[in-house]
Amino acid sequence: MRLRLVFSVTALVAAAHWVVLFGNIHLPPITAAFTPDAPQRLHTIWVQPTPAAPPAPQVQAAGQTTPPKPIAPRRPPAAPDAALTAAPAPRATAATPAPPVVETETPAVAADAANAQAMEPAAAPTQPQGPSLQVRNAADMPVTMVLPPDGSALTQHMELRFKVEGFVKGMQYHANAQLQWQTDGHTYQARQSISAFLLGSLEQTSTGLLTPQGLQPLQFVDRRLTKRRTVNLDWTAQQALFEPERTPAPIGPGTQDRLSVFLQLASMLQAMPDLRAPGTRIDIPTLGARRMQIWSFVVEGQAQLELPDGPVPTLRLHRLPQAGDDETAQLWLNPALGYVPVRMHMKESNGDVMDLTLKP
Length: 360
Fold this sequence. Notes:
Low-confidence stretches: 25-45, 81-87, 92-96, 121-126
CATH topology of the domain at 134-358: outer membrane lipoprotein receptor (LolB), chain A
Helix content: 10-25%
Strand content: 35-45%
């Protein structure tokens, strides 16, 4: 009996060794617990990888932060708001923390705001408004000035020669003068020179533009012997700047200088016949080399002027003195020459006298 038991045990041990050494049987791991539900749990468990940490926000030049780009959702999101471009943040879970949502202004909205700000008109700088040309008829009613903008009311080119007589500091003198100008439909240049024996020479030049208001000087230069004085007219700033430097003078529409004022009068009377009526008053702001004055001319009427070539019909004007200033002038303008002066008699405040008469 005992022998049979030993033989059986020996046979079983030998069979087990044969199976382990030469068999194709896979035994389950000892630590794995086999249950009927184990295969189902293995098929339903999804292991998601740990999401990478979102990048740190970058600081822009304007002091704003750029939010990290959100993870694209698996399903198409709802239509975004027109004013926002940030995508909706994914729903937070224990495995995937939701990044912060920062609403940013779209480039289109920012561009519209910038364009709207740029289109706002800049505040115009306040500039002093200087005196302007004024015209009144014999009934003291204002007259609107209408002139051709190309300067066609003024002869395009002319050169006049004058005989000059006068007194300087009580001493009589004789001299010759020349007045010439030319225009090209847009600009003008004028020059007047007076030369006298022992007294030297005097020269004035005026350059500028032709506008619907007549001549618009840009520079006036006055030379007396070795002295030179210049006036530059800045129409943007509405100021006259003097050289040598003095306090700037405010200027307004129609401002002239001491040379262009005579050409302005000629073009006005040529283009506007109503101004030739006696009693018409024309106030023109006029710049000299040192200051601004208002030259007021009153039309006195038709006058016959005796010249070396014979009598000439003219229109006579009288320049009124200003308050506290005895400076006056008489002008005789020739209609046949476009109302340019053929004689000028001027008296300064200090008593100096200058009389210019057209030479044949």
